[in-house]
Design a protein that fits this description.
- Chains A, B: Residues 7-80 form the Transcription regulator PadR N-terminal domain.
- Chains A, B: It comes from Kitasatospora terrestris.
- Chains A, B: Residues 92-175 form the Transcription regulator PadR C-terminal domain.
- Chains A, B: Pfam families: PadR, Vir_act_alpha_C.
- Two copies of one chain form a homodimer.
- Chain A is mainly α.
- The first copy, chain A, is 61% helix and 6% strand.
- Chain A has seven helices and two strands; from the N terminus they run H-H-H-E-E-H-H-H-H.
- Chain A has a two-stranded antiparallel ribbon.
- In chain A, helix 2 (18-26) packs across helix 3 (37-49) and helix 6 runs antiparallel to helix 7.
- The longest helix of chain A has 36 residues, at 145-180.
- The radius of gyration of chain A is 22 Å and the shape is elongated.
- The interface between A and B is large, with 70 and 70 residues.
- Chain A binds a DNA duplex through helix 2 and helix 3.
Chain lengths: 187, 187
DNA sequence: AGTGCCATGTAACCAGTTACATGATTGC
DNA sequence: GCAATCATGTAACTGGTTACATGGCACT
């Protein structure tokens, strides 16, 4: 399980409430780990009883009170211990790839709009990464350790999106080729 | 849910037993969808009662009997209907990326062996893809529709591994740089 | 009047993982 | 004798998703 650790890393970078964590998981951290607010609240309570985080109740006016969480010493140690454990290989769930193979048993042309939709999504994400990189790391040669590590992860996201865009173009070309030569497999 | 559909696609490509499906999920299909045999047996039974697949009991001598499953007409229609539904965006789970950011709160040098282990795993996988591509698609210009779609998915896997290798080199360079300049953040 | 943001939660369900169980055959 | 391969399953658990609930403030 790594959601605990993802939350701890986020709290080490900056303390915050469950709500704030949920919005971070929708933005930056969401690039490589997703979580809903329900999950986050549940895990935060568990980590509090484990002593990995502490809460500070903050009253606000004009908006609801919030509970600001911070990582504790034991929490930091838990992260360090987890870093020393080997990561199991990622379990892949690539639904679009399954669909592309499935297209052989239906009409490949039908998949084109879906692939185009994905392409547009990835293009938009790449744009967001690039503008985010410009904004958050305007001078990539002067970064402290934490920023360098954040930056190299962001570079990974950018390269992933570029690769994916190129591949989706390859997929689209293949689908268009198949649409032009109507073989109609077993239908 | 897409495990049903991944199994159906695999059975459309070729009928097989739960055991055979499990080994396919360890090889080719495992590139973009994973499943254990327990899961596969459970889903096959559900799909049988739904009429998406049919079983044929095959007695064998020298080895245990097996139940060979095939996709039915309704199964094929279920795949076609699923193809027309939009795919939800993939939920990403990239544990290594979390660890790289976590390294800022521990010793970045400690992560180097782990990243090298990953690099070796991805390099081995790329090799396997490349030899598999040579073996299964020796002449990529003469492929039928099904093979073309399988091939474009394989190309995606190859490009993904290449990109990942390049990124892991980038990560390693970053970690080595940080190890040379001991900043030691909050320890 | 309606939408969106801030903020926290409960409850039910479903998918996926881990552990355990059985048993014959083939090869080292 | 031991491990690997073929072959199918049960049971318990855990992590993640979906639906539902509450309520004030700011903006259009």
């Amino acid at each position: 399980m790594a959601l605990e650790h993802a939350i701890l890393v986020s709290l080490l970078e900056r303390p915050g409430s469950g709500y704030e964590l949920a919005s971070r998981f929708d933005r930056s951290i969401g690039r490589f780990w997703t979580a809903t607010h329900q999950q986050i609240y549940r895990v935060l309570r568990r980590m509090e009883t484990d002593g990995w985080v502490v809460v500070e109740h903050v009253a606000q006016d004009g908006r609801p009170d919030k509970k600001v969480y911070s990582a504790t010493g034991p929490g930091r140690q838990a992260v360090a211990a987890w870093l020393r454990e080997p990561v199991e290989p990622e379990t892949v769930r690539h639904e679009l790839a399954v669909k592309i193979r499935a297209a052989a048993f239906s009409d490949p042309a039908e998949l084109i709009p879906e692939v185009e939709r994905h392409r547009a999504g990835h293009a938009a994400l790449l744009e967001r990464y690039l503008t985010g990189a410009d904004r958050d790391f305007p001078d990539p040669d002067v970064l402290d350790a934490q920023e360098q590590l954040q930056h190299v992860v962001l570079r990974g996201g950018i390269e992933y999106e570029r690769m994916t865009l190129a591949w989706l173009d390859d997929v689209l070309a293949t689908l268009h080729r198949l649409a032009r030569t109507p073989s109609n497999p077993q239908d």
